[in-house]
Each structure stands twice: as C-alpha cells, then as structure tokens.
Design a protein that fits this description.
Order of helices and strands: HEEHEEEEHHEHEHHEHEEEEEEEHEHH
Helix content: 25-40%
Structural class: alpha/beta
Strand order of the largest sheet: 1-3-6-7-8-9-10-17
Radius of gyration: 23 Å
Number of helices: 11
Distance between the termini: 41 Å
Strand content: 25-35%
Number of strands: 17
Shape: globular
Length: 341
C-alpha cells in the first residue's frame, strides 16, 4: 500500500511538473520592431532581419504632434515619407508621438479638434501610400500627473474618430508611469506597451547607463503584475553618446559613430578641441557611451517575463536600424524574444 502511495505521489509530481512546463510554453510571443525614421526605406540588412526573426508586423511612427509657438497651435511634424513599399507579409501599426506642450496649452475644445486632425492625417498617410495596416493604433506620450487629464481626454476623443473605429488602441507606458500609477493614472486604452529603456538619469554625470540597467529596472516593476492594463513589452537595441562639460550635461548624440578613438570604460575625454564627423568638441568636454548590451537586455527581459501574466504577448525591439543591428547576431535578437516564452 505504501509503495502504491509513493508511486501515486511521484506520478502526481510529474503531472504537475508537466503541466507547469506546458503552462510556460503556452505563451504566444509575437516578434516585432519599431521603425522610427522619417523616411521609410528599409536597407537589405533590415529586410533580412525581418525575415530571419519572423516579423509579421512593424510599429512605424507616422508623425509627431508638437506645439507651434508662432501659430499657438498643435501641429504634426516629422511626418513619415514612404519611399519604399512595405515588405510583403508584414503589416504596419501606426504610431503617433505626442509631446507635452499640446496637452499643457490647449483646452478641451482644441483637443477635440486635434483628435479629428490626427485621425484625418493617419487616414491620409495610409491611403496615399496604399499601406496594409494592422488592427491597432499606438499612442506614444510621456504624460505626467499634470497632463494626464488632458491626455486621457484626447484619447477618448480619438476613439470616436473614423480612423480609430474597430481598432485596438494601445499606449506606451514608461517605467515612472508604471511605478507611480496612483499619481499618473492608467490611460483609457485597450492595452499598454511597457517601455523597458531610458530608465536612468541621463543628465547625471555619475550614471553609467541610462538606457538599460537591471538594478534600475528593479526599482520600477515591483507592482507590475497588478497593473490594470494588459501589458506588452519594448526592449532597446540601440546606443548613443551623452555629452558633458565637466559635470554639466550638454546634449545627446544619436546615430553618432566614432572610429579610431579609444574609449576608457565607456568614456571619451577631449584634451584638445576636436572635430568628429562634423561635430565639434571643446577641450574639457567628454562623452559617455551608453549601449544596450545583449546580456543586460536578456537579463532584464527575463526579469520582466516572470512578472507578466499574459499568454499573448508582443515584444517590440527599438529599433530597426542597420547600424544598431550590426552590433547583434541573429541568435542574440532571437534570445530577447525567447526570454518571454
């Protein structure tokens, strides 16, 4: 009898283990990329990456919404130009980036007009370029406690517009918006896209890497599983240089390349006036090189994955760019997606 009980216990344990493994394997992870350039024109390297990673949908920024001081009104800027047809078998999700000033400086009537203008421009870009769109529209905004009411009102107005009908509306969620959810609120959308980058103090000279840092990430995600929206995830695959003069932040250099100049622990000091690729640096200035190292991205992805409950998940890498992609092999890119399975 005891032998039978032990046998049953062992079978039960194995069954639970099998079910647990199956549960982990049930998560369906959709691979995707952001495309954040004004001109849509994929390089051969970018097209090959889409094929190798099985990308079926791209998140493409269509335009920014910014504030025009001269006209005292919100207007679209950095509108996408499609110089190339979208790849066969790859749909596009439009993304609209909204700055803070239109939210700070407009009343509800102006925001309602803005919603109509956004809808019309999205429709125009899509139809004029014959785009095959997904059933989703994404809004990207670094709203705060002071602008949340205006932003949420704008979202509700957008959802009434023709372009948004029968579409899923998603919104980017930055880590500070996740951590301080009581102050920042939750946007009235169908799902959120958790941006797991730009998490450190960029302007502080002692910061080692403001793009991605596992210790920094831990400070923001304690209540991740309690967030009321279903969350998907964006991870970084980019680098940049941060310019300082002594301990004063002077600017950010994106898409900047340095060849033949030695870095010391990710830092370049200028002991004389120097010109590199058209950029002038003065004596005493220095650059901090910040990267999205593959090992760090993977660790952060695994940490986030353990806290997500969703069985359907989109993972978006930011962003599809040949220069950045050249710093990763295909196995590393695949590992970022697989961290969520």
């Amino acid at each position: 009898m005891a032998h039978c009980l032990k046998f049953l216990e062992r079978c039960t344990f194995l069954l639970l283990l099998f079910c647990s493994c199956n549960e982990r394997e049930e998560r369906n992870v959709q691979h995707s990329f952001y495309y954040w350039k004004t001109v849509f024109n994929l390089t051969p390297k970018e097209q090959e990456t889409l094929k190798q990673q099985g990308i079926q949908n791209l998140y493409v920024k269509f335009f920014d919404v910014d504030w025009n001081e001269s006209t005292q009104s919100a207007e679209p800027v950095a509108k996408s130009v499609f110089d190339q047809k979208q790849p066969s078998g790859v749909s596009i999700t439009p993304v609209v980036f909204i700055t803070q000033e239109p939210l700070q400086k407009q009343d509800t009537s102006a925001l309602a007009t803005l919603a109509a203008n956004i809808s019309n421009l999205l429709s125009s870009i899509a139809s004029n370029n014959g785009l095959n769109l997904s059933a989703e529209v994404q809004l990207d905004c670094d709203w705060t406690a002071k602008t949340k009411d205006a932003y949420f009102y704008l979202i509700n107005q957008l959802k009434k517009q023709p372009f948004f009908q029968k579409k899923t509306v998603s919104a980017t969620i930055r880590l500070h918006q996740l951590k301080f959810v009581t102050q920042n609120g939750v946007p009235p959308v169908d799902k959120g896209l958790l941006m797991c980058y730009n998490m450190g103090n960029l302007r502080h000279p002692q910061t080692e890497n403001s793009i991605i840092d596992e210790d920094e990430l831990k400070k923001y995600i304690n209540n991740l599983e309690k967030y009321s929206l279903p969350l998907h995830v964006a991870l970084p695959v980019f680098d940049w240089y941060v310019l300082f003069e002594a301990n004063t932040y002077k600017g950010l250099l994106r898409d900047f390349t340095i060849d033949g100049i030695k870095e010391t622990k990710g830092r370049i000091d200028f002991d004389r006036d120097t010109v590199i690729n058209g950029y002038s640096f003065k004596t005493g200035q220095w650059l901090r090189h910040e990267r999205s190292d593959a090992a760090v991205v993977k660790k952060c992805a695994e940490r986030i994955s353990r806290k997500l409950k969703s069985k359907e998940l989109t993972v978006i890498l930011y962003h599809l760019d040949s220069r950045h992609l050249s710093k990763y092999n295909q196995n590393e890119l695949e590992s970022f997606y697989n961290s969520f399975r």
